[in-house]
Batch of 4 targets.
Target 1
Amino acid sequence: MEETISLQDLFKTLKKRLVLILVAVVLAVTAAGVISFLFLTPIYQASTQILVNQQKVEQSQFNAQDIQTNLQLINTYNVIIKSPAILSKVIKNLDLDTTPAALSGKLTVNSEQDSQVVSISVQDPEAFRAVDIANTTAIVFQEEIQKLMNVDNVNILSKAIPAENPAPIKPDPYLNMAIAAVIGLMLGVGIAFLLEYLDTTVKTEDDIEELLGLPILGLISPIPEVKAPSAIDALKQRRKER
């Protein structure tokens, strides 16, 4: 026998398990808030920008071919910036207790689309250290690129500046709690329908008809209980009748 579920049945199930769904949402949001505020380490970000030219500022004009050459160099520079040749000197200058590979994981090098500007972003649990690493990386790269490629075409466009009250870029507790609310809602609804599916108790006449495969011939209405009068009440009634 094919089983069909109407939209009314779905809403009935949700209404029946509403407390369970709300509990799942509250627990998920609470867990996400506690983990985000108390256990996750805040991460700060600092960025600096460098400008790639074909040569130093003595050349006052650039043609299209010069700019295209610079854009091709940027991909090479992006790799060199995160190489041990640069990062090992950054670690030495700042006396950092880390390795070039670990420091490379904190760096993000992006080139603006169709431009000669390269952004160096650093993420670190300490805001001041992120600023120092970003600025030092730009300075070391500007110095070392002259030795590595025998060119002098890198200028620092903007330095990372420490903020008075830096705000971490992650984690975002409120975003995590919003995501947890959605996950908790989905989990609560899933559990509600699972419990309803596993509940095989007979509750209505429709359940009996579906279970036995026989038509229902009649229904017995509930008969209210009638309380038998006590001996004293019966005696009072007889006196009234007299």
Target 2
Amino acid sequence: MRTRVKFCGITRREDALQAVRLGADAIGLVFYSESPRAVSPQQAYQIVRELPPFVTVVGLFVNAAPGYLQQILERVPIDILQFHGEEPPEDCSHYGRAYIKAIRMAEGVDLPGLAQSYGSASALLLDTYQAGVPGGTGRAFDWGRVPKSLSKAVILAGGLTPENIAQAVKQVRPYAVDVSGGVERVKGVKDAAKMAAFMRGVDSVN
């Protein structure tokens, strides 16, 4: 099965359109004010309104207040929610939308147990653990820790780059991969050449 690709941390219309031209399946918009890749609802709307059909828009949240998240949903056409904080399953499923739960790969994390707890999730996104940092660490974790079979689809994230993506896909065989910093020129601004190289890396294994 083909590995899907999501370019996350999109802040500019031109980066979103470049992702589409390169064949990305999804783009990610960060609604977390402490992130250097955060976008306002107006920015997000301007990006999304330019997208053609069949590109999935993912909204990323970190322990967001329910009222704030609902405001975003009313202003921006988001397809899937991505939760990167300590949100319990009932909070994730509260909005009646498909969602992804990010799991930071700390020592001793029980992935089969979390897959069962978040049974309503569409997928688990596995990211690098760094204390106090909900994501975007720029560092990879040991891919050997990902079980060969899990009851949920796996989205691999954390420190992925054009240089290591082919090996990551070969080793883990995830449903999808998620990249942000590994294809940037500076934080929040994507590099078209790196994005293209990343896609070639994925395609070389598919």
Target 3
Amino acid sequence: MDDQASDKLVHDSSAGIDRLVEIMRRLRDKENGCPWDVEQTFTTIYPYTIEEAYEVGDAIEREAWGELRGELGDLLFQSVFHAQMADEAGLFDFQDVVQAISDKMVSRHPHVFGSEGNDFSADDQVDRWEEVKAAERAAKAETRVLDGVAVGLPALLRAVKLQKRAARVGFDWPSTDQVIDKIREESEELVEARDKLTQEEVEEEMGDLLFVVANLARHLGVEPEGALRKANAKFVRRFNKIEDSLAAIGKTPEQSNLEEMDMFWDKAKAEDKAAKNT
């Protein structure tokens, strides 16, 4: 594309995805592009991709629909960025990305795009989806039960996915009572490690405990990553109330103590419960 056509496309607000792809190409131009964009690699951009995905989730959690459009755009830009770098390396381009996901969606939904009927429940479709994915893994020579569970997932999310995969072949506790018993066992081992073992062994026992907690969340039908995000938000909200209560008596947290802050914490907790009951 010549410079004049490129400029016209870049400044055409109605040009859609082609405009974004061209903007990305221009940003990566080694002679006239943005120096920061030019020097990026898959490895350096990857953390931003993860961050943008979380910002989409944050906007949804807060029901900030006015922000969601922009956050989804930021996430889309990450896909275009990776595709442009892949194109430069001769691996694939953005159209290949679009074709791959389109082909996958058609393949995984024969009841919508094929000749099969659509007499399936949502649970039935999940089971069928897993069967299709298992066939895809087999085609990639991913023959072990846990093959294909992405290493780069957030640790809690990956723990649940690993456990779900193992559960499909019968490696699972039948009831939450047994999972809770295992949590008690792992907690005791962590205390013992704290008192007698090395920091590395303490870390290992902490990991074991978190893994079982993730398993309990799965058994209870709770998504642990989301549950922890909500717990984080609740902690921020209540601690902010502690600061507000201290400010009302002319203090900062640094000028307070644990006993006083704990008293204000209990007050914030009671206010939260009262608000839920109204």
Target 4
Amino acid sequence: MKLLLTLCLSLLPAFVTAETISNKDEKAAETIEALGQPLYSPFTERYLLDEVKNLRQQLADARVELTEKIVTREIEVASKAMTYATDTVTYFFYLIAGASTLLVLIGWNSLRDIKERVGNFANDEIRRITASYEERLDKLESELHKKSRHIARAQEEIELTNEIHSLWLKASQENTPQSKIAIYDQILQLRPDDVEALTYKADSALLLGQSQWAHSLANRALDIDPDNSHALYQRACAYSESGSPEEALRDLAEAIERSDSLRLQAGKDSSFEPLRNDQRFIDMVVLPENPAD
């Protein structure tokens, strides 16, 4: 009875802590639901990028550590196997020596004949065992080379990611579209299939009034990722500015279907100024209460 009471008292703090955490999660969910607009800011973006960088670095370190442990274990297994083979051959020689002595005593064959037979058999067995372990060691060496190349590629990817991460931070600090485009071009040189860089470059092209250029960049991004809502939104902006309302409304509807938060952004975006009086556009977006906004 006393043991049961002690166990209940020890579990009580864990139950209270779990209930408190659940209450905090519910309050956080209610606060998020009550938000009127997204909490996007350069500081939030930089924090998220730093967190992604740390996670990738930790993942790479974990891979390297795991590889080292696997290699160490495989070498230990090979060493133990070689020891076992050596002991087996030694005991085999002892057994043959005893059997040879017995056969000499009963006159089955001469000592020289027995010695030659034992020697040939032992040599054949040693060659077989040696060949087997040489094959295993070759496979182990091949695996080590593959893992070394994988680690080298992972290290190169980490360095590339760090460089791209620093370029994104630099782009967030630039104030002019031309400066941002120059940085996005550097990112695309390092990683040509970076959809995010293509869409942000298209956004900067729209700010410069280059709707055709923005349209081409958005198409490149959609060729890589056809379901990218940001690329669809940028192409809709390009269509609107170039006087193609039907195509603009089509792409905007598809982008909003994939990301509902674009309703509010589209309602404030100056690229859709030609569509302000179109009822389909009005029904699709969330217009600001104060037109000056």
